[in-house]
């Protein structure tokens, strides 16, 4: 990757990463193309190849940028709480926010579908595996902290079961064209934590 050694270069590179991340979130991996990223960032097309050796390099940076931003948001929400929720409903909502992203005002099901499409698509991109594993470990640490602060006894094996339960509920709801996959995951998680 070419180094952006000037402040202007750093700003441009960051704008490209943000644009690619937004496209990734809105349309998945197929949406991240040189022209689309340059247009979104309002930069010349050549800037994508100047700052990144390949579209794969740009995707890695975009995925890391988005993943770190989500983790930081989740950590900030946890740190800003006066006390972690002890009631199951509030705890489940917090966990779902960390696993599925905060509830969108509109098109929540579409946002969740795109999130799961991204997760599944990373399996076809071996160059993303190290980053995906790293971000996953950081998310699990955040979830463990969330449960610990809420005085919920959850070990690593139980956490894996709860994540799998949410994933399964979401995927089944999406297959059934359920307009609210988050509600399906909420029901399953509440039952599991009862």
Q: Could you write a compact summary of the structure shown?
A:
It contains 9 helices and no strands. It is mostly helical and 194 residues long. The mean pLDDT is 90.
Low-pLDDT runs: none
Which sequence of SSEs, written as H and E, runs from N to C? HHHHHHHHH
Query: Shape, please?
Result: globular
Radius of gyration: 18 Å
- Strand content range: under 5%
Helical/strand content category: mainly alpha
> How widely separated are the two ends?
50 Å
Integer tally of domains = 2
In which range does the helix fraction lie?
over 70%
- Can you count the beta strands? 0
pLDDT averaged over residues: 90
Biggest β-sheet description: none
* Count of separate DSSP helical elements: 9
Could you characterize what this model shows?
The chain has 194 residues and is mostly helical. It contains nine helices and no strands. The model has no long low-confidence stretch (mean pLDDT 90).
């Amino acid at each position: 990757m070419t180094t952006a050694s000037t402040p202007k270069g750093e700003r441009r590179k960051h704008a490209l990463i943000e644009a690619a991340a937004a496209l990734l979130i809105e349309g998945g991996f197929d949406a991240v193309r040189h022209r689309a990223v340059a247009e979104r960032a309002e930069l010349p097309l050549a800037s994508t190849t100047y700052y990144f050796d390949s579209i794969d390099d740009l995707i890695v940076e975009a995925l890391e940028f988005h993943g770190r931003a989500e983790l930081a948001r989740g950590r900030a929400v946890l740190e800003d709480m006066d006390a972690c929720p002890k009631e199951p409903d509030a705890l489940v909502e917090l966990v779902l926010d960390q696993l599925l992203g905060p509830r969108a005002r509109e098109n929540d099901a579409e946002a969740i579908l795109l999130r799961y499409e991204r997760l599944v698509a990373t399996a076809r991109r071996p160059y993303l595996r190290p980053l995906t594993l790293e971000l996953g470990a950081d998310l699990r640490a955040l979830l463990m902290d969330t449960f610990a602060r809420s005085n919920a006894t959850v070990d690593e094996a139980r956490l894996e079961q709860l994540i799998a339960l949410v994933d399964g509920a979401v995927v089944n709801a999406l297959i059934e064209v359920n307009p609210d996959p988050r509600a399906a995951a909420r029901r399953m998680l509440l039952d599991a934590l009862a």
